[in-house]
Structure formats: structure tokens, C-alpha cells
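Board notes, transcribed. Complex of a protein with EPU.
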Amino acid sequence: MIKIKSNFSLKRLNTFGLSVTTKKFVKINSVQEAIELIKSGKLDSEKKLVIGSGSNLLLTKDFDGIVIKINIGGIHVVKEDDAHFWVKSGAGVIWQELVESCIKANFGGIENLSLIPGTVGAAPIQNIGAYGVELKDTFEALEAINLENGEKKYFKHQECNFGYRNSIFKNELKDKYLITNVILRLSKEPELNISYGTIQEELKKLGKTAFTIRDISDAIIRIRQSKLPDPEKVGNAGSFYKNPVISMDLFQAIKKTYPDIPYYEQPNNEVKIPAAWLIEQCDLKGTCHNGAAIHIDQPIVLINKSNATGQDIKELSEFIQKKVKLRFGILLEPEVRIL
Ligand code: EPU
């Protein structure tokens, strides 16, 4: 029997640690349970929110619907050829547990994504990325259940429309599917990606020239732990904004006043600018608004400093957007989902 709870606190289920409740709550432990629940009709006419570990969510008010927490586990090799292993993981597996299993087994491809908070099922929704690698680089397919009719559907790589922190599941298919399993294609002879400057600096400290995926993972864990607040200690949801992609013309105009502006060239004559830099230029590092604050070391991260409400964080975000827009003419787009 699947148990639906009423008036359930989400405080432990969102990494901002916000005290909000949901009208109804259910935990799903298997694909079968997900299908059963949807086909039972108990979700009909309810607003539905599927969550993993709530690490990309800003809840500004109580949720007037049903929150479905995915708890589907299991990590298995499902296929192998000369060069690759295909690994299938339950959507409820903690992302870092999958990364760690792959590193232990010497399966390469996701070591740069070490220590990203969240679950495996949430990873494709925003095509998680860090240090020059994105989920899409190893993604093979996923299995999902249609929230309307309980039908199973497989999505191959091309069907997910992956982009920078984006996929079909944030657009046309938003809130339409519940992801149950993800399959990744990992390498037997990993090609290491150490292009990102800070990784190279960190690896230099090891005093060797050849590196393993364990070295990369350890280096990234050290970098992340030194820069990003641990959500267990200080409520946050990682990068609050996407790094904006702007036209070359706007970039050139800004560069006249700010010759040191950091940037990453993109296809189509566009340029990606670090949101952290834009916020820092507006002298906003460390700014507080009620219990919410801009992280002092990494201003793309907003934190729950002391008993903030979701509304405090939202207002702080709007203030940042206003300041950055005024100075640079760029609208920062939130990466987190605001509800
Ligand atoms: N910067 C500043 N001031 C600061 C911090 C950074 O000006 O206080 C500038 C610097 O120029 C720096 C640049 O911002 O070189 C980039 O900073 P960082 O390497 O910390 O990365 P980011 O662009 O802020 C992105 C991802 C992160 C990911 C890192 C590492 C997005 C929205 N964020 O952050 O992802 O871990 O790169 O690859 O693309 C997340 O999505 O939640 C996340 C943490």
C-alpha cells in the first residue's frame, strides 16, 4: 500500500532548509509503485511536484498539491563492449554515490561532476555540469513514467534536447514525466578533461604528470569544498543563476568599460559571462536581506543565513537582478526552480 501523507513538512527535503509544507506527500520506492500510484487516479486533479533531494528548488510558499519524492535505488552495469560500460541507475540514487561507484570501478566520464548535490533522476532535467563536462556527454537514455496515464517511455539522448542547464524536461515536458532510471555510457579507458584552469592548478599540487579519474575527482571535491557552502551546514541550492550568454556586441560594449571582464566564447557569435563576476562588480558580495544572503566567496550562490523564508531569498534575488540589469543591461536568469 502506498501511503499518502497530509500536511507534510518539506524542511528536510529542500537544501535551502526552508520551513514549508505540502498539502500531500508520497514517497515512491520502485517503478511499479510509480505506475500503480498514477493509475490509481489518486493524483488526478492534483498539482504535482516530483522531487529528488530538493537541491535546485526555492519554495516561497506552502505547496498546494502533492509532492512525489523519488526513492528508486540500484546501480547496475547493463551492457558492455570493448570500450564502454553502460550503467543504469535508479533516479533516487544520490548523484555523488553514483560518481563514487563509477570511480571505484574505474568507469570514466563523470568524475568532473563529483560532489554535485542532488539525485540521479534530477541530473538530466537541468543537464548538470561542472569543470568542462555536462551530463549529456555520457548520457545514453532514461526511463520515465507519464504522470497523466502511467505509461512508461524511454527517452534517448536526442529526445532530451539538452542545452546549457536545460532539457526538454524544463520546457515542453515540464512536470509531465517522472524519471525513474537513467543510463550512462562510461569509458573503460577514460579520457581526462582537465581543461578548466582551477583543476590544473589543483592537480599541480600532486607533483605528477599522469592522473587517474580518482585524482580528478579528489581535486574537484577539494575545489568545491573550498568554495561552495555545504548545504548540510548552510542552506543553499548551488548556483542560483545561469551564467548569462550575451551577444558579441553587448560584450564588446561592456569590455570598453571593464577590460578585465572574464568570458567564454560560445558558438553563434555569443559570449558567456560568469554571473559571479557581474554580481561582484555590483559590490553585492555578502549582502543580506532578512535571513537571506549572497555568499561571500561565490556570489552566484544565495544562502539561508539565519531562518530565511523563501520570500526573503526571492526578494534578494530580485534585488540582484535589478542591480545587474541596471549596470550591465543583462537579466540574470535563475537556474533554480522557484515555486
Ligand atoms: N568569479 C568572480 N567572483 C567570484 C567568483 C567567481 O568574479 O567571487 C568569476 C571568476 O572570473 C571565475 C568565474 O566567475 O573564473 C567562474 O567561477 P567558477 O569557476 O566558480 O564557476 P561559475 O561559473 O560561477 C559554474 C557552474 C557551477 C560549476 C562551476 C565549475 C553555472 C551556473 N554554474 O559556476 O555549477 O560547479 O562552474 O564548473 O554554470 C551549479 O550549477 O549549481 C553549479 C555549482
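The chain has seven helices and 20 strands. The helical segments are 31-39, 95-104, 197-204, 213-227, 248-257, 275-281, 310-328.
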